[in-house]
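User: I'm putting together a small comparison set for a docking exercise, and I want a reference complex before I start. The sequence is below, and the ligand is EPZ. Could you produce the 3D structure with the ligand included, as structure tokens?
Assistant: Of course. I'll restate your input first, then give the structure tokens for the complex.
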Amino acid sequence: MDSYKLLITGGIPLVGETYVSGGKNTSVAVISATLLCDEPCVLENLPDIEDVHVLIDILTGLGAKVDYQPEAKRMTVDPRNVNTFRVPYRQTQRMRASYYMLGALLGRFGQAEVGYPGGCSIGARPVDQHLKAFRAIGAEVKDRGAKITAKGKMVGGSVVFDRITVGGTINAMLAAARAEGNTTLYNAAREPHVVDLANFLNSMGCRVKGAGTDTIRITGAKKLHGSVYTVIPDQIETGTLMIAAAATRGDVVIRGCIPTHMESLTAKLLEMGVAVSDMDDAIRVRTVRGHRAVNIKTQEYPGFPTDLQQPMSAMLTRASGDSVVIETIFESRFKHLMEMRRMGAQVQILDQTAIIQGVPELYGAPVTATDLRAGAALVIAGLMANGVTEIYEPGYIERGYEHIEEKLRALGADIRREPLEDI
Ligand code: EPZ
């Protein structure tokens, strides 16, 4: 239970300029990949978020030397003294992406024993495809319920994923990076952070080709030299800020982003009647009139991202008309909409489909965040609503959004923390 709640007084259009931090989902992959290196690596543009702090604890626990300067967004990792291949359950439970330790330790030592990952309550989130990939590359893998053990010389191989999986693709790249032979991943994920990881691995001397397509070829490298690498901006934070600007009928310029990563969201916002203009490394979002209802179907990149479904569906609660939202990636990612019913949202949910009937206004109410992006969605609903919204369990939001309250306040939002009185 968090010790504070967020209070938002809504109805204020967001106006001004803001910036995007380094990507959460790329950072957790790139930080894990430093374990593969034979020399220290320097990572730039890292976001100062909970998930990065958890990974620092895990790497330090393995014996790596980590020098982290959050204000400089820089981290130096020296993996040369890593002296164990075990990551305890109490650590892996703190973060979903802790499963990348399997691929990184297998890739470096040919051995890994990692507790089962934690993560958001958005679905079952099995790791069968990760284990399938490790076996194809040369590991003997045992799934023992609370932990996974994997052992074997990484010799390379061919992996055909039964379904597109970002984590499975990344974990296979980590395990294959120093394999004796070549590895080909078919039906691979194409997300921007898969490409970012490939670029980082190549900057250390790996040979990864095809990242960003559905077939990735990896030639194992014997030795990896140190690298200074800047991670890409966060695609999902960019999208969350774009939606917040549009949902509050504001006018915001978001700097330090990559507009081409945002195509699917930009197209949907334009369809709603929002004015979106791309610049080199910035996007301006303005509302010029009311928002039309639109239909959303989440898909793997470059389709509409599942991580933006929750923030977008918050905005759709006040669009004119009925919107249909189909969530194809995770089985239970509509909890935020159930919370928004208390704010006046009209929503019917049937399995993976939500039908949102637009209402003229939302009104402030007490709501509870159940996962990271649900928290972001509730913040957007609070910014839209008339009156005061209290968001309980806001700690989820800190996991993936760096300084988000400060960024929103700088755009005019009335958002603050209030300690929870003893209950
Ligand atoms: C990554 O999760 C992201 N997390 C998620 O972001 C994101 O929603 C997801 O990719 C999809 O883009 C990180 O990068 C740390 P998947 P991941 O493997 O890798 C099923 C956020 O809010 N599946 O692509 O766990 C799985 O259950 C988080 O930042 C299997 O069945 O996602 C899901 O239904 C939330 N077997 C679907 O595939 C497997 O072995 C996609 O999962 C692996 C996955």
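Residues 24-25, 28, 96-97, 120, 123-130, 163, 165-168, 306-307, 329-330, 372-373, 400 surround EPZ (CB under 6 Å). DSSP finds 14 helices and 24 strands in the chain.
User: Thanks, that's exactly what I needed.
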